[in-house]
Amino acid sequence: MPLTVLIPMVVLGIAGIALLLHLAGRSQRCVLTPVSAEMAWLRQFPGDRVAEATVARDGHAALILTDHGPGLLWAFGADTVARRLLDYDLIDRGDRLRVVFHDFTAPTVTLTLDPFERRHWLNRMQTP
Amino acid sequence: MTQRLTYPDVVQMAVPVFVALILAEFLWIAWRGRGGRYETRDALTSLIMGAGNVAVGIALGFVTWRFFMWLWQLTPLDLGHGWWVVALCFVLDDLRYYWVHRFGHRIRWVWASHVNHHSSQHYNLTTALRQTWTGTFTFMMIVRAPLILLGFHPAMVLFCGGLNLIYQFWIHTEAIGKLPRWIEAVMNTPSHHRAHHGRNPRYLDCNYAGVFIVWDRMFGTFVPELGEDRVDYGLVHNLGTFNPLRVAFHEWVGLIRDVIRPGLSLRQRLGYAFGPPGYSHDGSRDTSDRIKAQHLARHPEDAGTPGFEAPRPPAE
């Protein structure tokens, strides 16, 4: 197949499918509850014991305290991703807290937290 | 000896069919409210990975082609191009696929290329297109060498490989349940391949087949999809990025970082490159064998059920 046909077909096909999915509401992020956050954490770390799951008010992230230390769970599209809070930097941008993991597979997470939440999370994130 | 033999590039020809079937699957799911899930960025990443795979094939395909033609010059055998030769080539190439795929899950060097195909937490027809950009660098084309040395023309071998890839497209769906028993017994089906994409301990390292599931039954790697253990798609450690470059190269980056870290013996460095995924010199990571053993320590009632038949090392 000539590239002059293949390339437009691939580009239009990808763009068309992405647009259709977006317009059909398939871009919504997962919304967590304390129970679903705990389940999602255990899906990633089945050997952990979860002591506390604090869900952000926007429902897109949760701070998880476990017997292995604190961890962060966040909405990743319609699903979730979890990482232990072991090796990371924090960038405070007012209403947003940016967590920079030193991890090529999960580089950054931006948390939207109100001032009270931010104080609470920062305190808990440093809990050993 | 046949020097010039041409077959159509069936994968490129199938692109419009792929797009049409993705639309059909999505509309089916939207209409019925079941049969799978779609998410915009996940699907977009998968489609970009697929487009990148085709682009890399166009750019680097000559490496494989020249290697195969070099082998073709070496062999005195030429089976010709009758229909039965093509059929036999298709079956043997599927056996080749089984082993390359198995290596792809058991050798980190090959897993580094294949991992991106498993990196979606979704399972739909776009997942089928989430293909590697780095397959050439695994040198797994060597596994096709016996076919060419046996007298199958390189063009025929690549044609059969293309048909194999096209077959595997339609099995990446949750919209189709289990098929009649005789089909499930012989062919790779959506059910068998769903199990292959599972990150549940039960489904790790199973169902490597491309077209014929009989290879897994023969070589002891078959695990049926079980209703009581719903497949959880994705990686043991799921990615936190939709960036196609990170998806394509993340395991290579991890592999190189591990291999060059200071203070390791040569054996340990080789372990990081060619050992099973999850190998670590200090036991700080989990291989699939250890993940299964840890699961059995938590759920001893699963011992002896599909996926947990073989004896496993201690969980630690």
Automatic annotation (TrEMBL), chain A:
<protein>
    <recommendedName>
        <fullName>DUF2550 family protein</fullName>
    </recommendedName>
</protein>
<keyword id="KW-1133">Transmembrane helix</keyword>
<keyword id="KW-0472">Membrane</keyword>
<feature type="transmembrane region" description="Helical">
    <location>
        <begin position="6"/>
        <end position="24"/>
    </location>
</feature>
<keyword id="KW-0812">Transmembrane</keyword>
Automatic annotation (TrEMBL), chain B:
<dbReference type="GO" id="GO:0005506">
    <property type="term" value="F:iron ion binding"/>
</dbReference>
<keyword id="KW-0472">Membrane</keyword>
<dbReference type="GO" id="GO:0006643">
    <property type="term" value="P:membrane lipid metabolic process"/>
</dbReference>
<keyword id="KW-0812">Transmembrane</keyword>
<keyword id="KW-1133">Transmembrane helix</keyword>
<feature type="transmembrane region" description="Helical">
    <location>
        <begin position="80"/>
        <end position="99"/>
    </location>
</feature>
<dbReference type="GO" id="GO:0016020">
    <property type="term" value="C:membrane"/>
</dbReference>
<feature type="domain" description="Fatty acid hydroxylase">
    <location>
        <begin position="86"/>
        <end position="221"/>
    </location>
</feature>
<dbReference type="Pfam" id="PF04116">
    <property type="entry name" value="FA_hydroxylase"/>
</dbReference>
<dbReference type="InterPro" id="IPR051689">
    <property type="entry name" value="Sterol_desaturase/TMEM195"/>
</dbReference>
<feature type="transmembrane region" description="Helical">
    <location>
        <begin position="12"/>
        <end position="31"/>
    </location>
</feature>
<keyword id="KW-0443">Lipid metabolism</keyword>
<feature type="region of interest" description="Disordered">
    <location>
        <begin position="277"/>
        <end position="316"/>
    </location>
</feature>
<dbReference type="InterPro" id="IPR006694">
    <property type="entry name" value="Fatty_acid_hydroxylase"/>
</dbReference>
<feature type="transmembrane region" description="Helical">
    <location>
        <begin position="147"/>
        <end position="170"/>
    </location>
</feature>
<feature type="compositionally biased region" description="Basic and acidic residues">
    <location>
        <begin position="282"/>
        <end position="302"/>
    </location>
</feature>
<dbReference type="GO" id="GO:0012505">
    <property type="term" value="C:endomembrane system"/>
</dbReference>
<dbReference type="GO" id="GO:0008610">
    <property type="term" value="P:lipid biosynthetic process"/>
</dbReference>
<keyword id="KW-0560">Oxidoreductase</keyword>
<protein>
    <submittedName>
        <fullName>Sterol desaturase family protein</fullName>
    </submittedName>
</protein>
<dbReference type="GO" id="GO:0050479">
    <property type="term" value="F:glyceryl-ether monooxygenase activity"/>
</dbReference>
<feature type="transmembrane region" description="Helical">
    <location>
        <begin position="43"/>
        <end position="68"/>
    </location>
</feature>
